[in-house]
Amino acid sequence: MRKIILTSAVLLTAAIGASSFALADKAPRGDRAERHATMCVDRNARAVGHLAELEAKLKPTTAQTAAWAAYKNTLTTQSAAAEKSCLDRAAARKAAGDDKKRPTIIERQAMMEKGLEAKLANLKATQPSLTALYATLSDDQKQVMDRSGKRHGKFAGRHGKNHGGMDHKAGFERHHDKADAPVEQ
User: Fold this and answer.
1) How far apart are CA 93 and CA 88, in angstroms?
2) In the chain, what are the helix, strand and coil shares in percent, each to the nearest 5?
3) Domain total for the chain?
């Protein structure tokens, strides 16, 4: 009985220590600007990671390299611009002293409108390179692109259907669709 209690106490202490250590690198709760800046950088990193994952799944051929490079360049340029814009907004709020308070409904609506306008501009800018790339893909690659294409909205916003990213059904399909295996050529 003593061994069980001692083992439980050690495990509990380790779990508490690990969770405190994991939380130590996060920005303090009251510093909105710092959390916002971290979110901006993390979003860009995720976008670049999703693009690398797509490239690994598509396995572009030599003939497709130019079209893939154009598409990838468009998305990475947009992602970097979105990160810079996001960081600029965080810095402006901090400079104005607004980083400690929650934006009003009017401010949130205005931010949402600007974000949606930016997403629309990004979609319009991406369409030519996406169309050119898609025309070069094999039928199997098109299936991979069609399934993963639901996630490309993540370059401009959070995940979730109403935030321009992957919808919940797509997440379910990704985990349950056996046809999502890498394309063999």
Assistant:
1) 9
2) 80, 0, 20
3) 1
Residue of higher predicted confidence among 138 and 178: 138
Which residues form the domain of 16? 2-180
Residues 172/174/175/181 CA torsion (nearest 10 deg): 160
Q: What confidence tens digit (pLDDT) does each residue in 112-122 have?
A: 999 899 899 99
- 145 contacts: CB under 8 Å, gap ≥ 6: 54, 58, 133, 134, 137
For 109-124, letters b (16+ CB in 10 Å) and e give eeeeeebeebbeebee
- The owner of tokens 């629309």 is 120
Rounded Cα distance between 157 and 162, Å, is: 10
User: Is the CB of residue 47 less than 8 Å from the CB of residue 78?
Assistant: no
Q: Which amino acid is at 138?
A: S
pTM for the whole thing? 0.61
Residue 77 lies in a domain: yes
Chain centroid, CA 68 distance in Å: 20
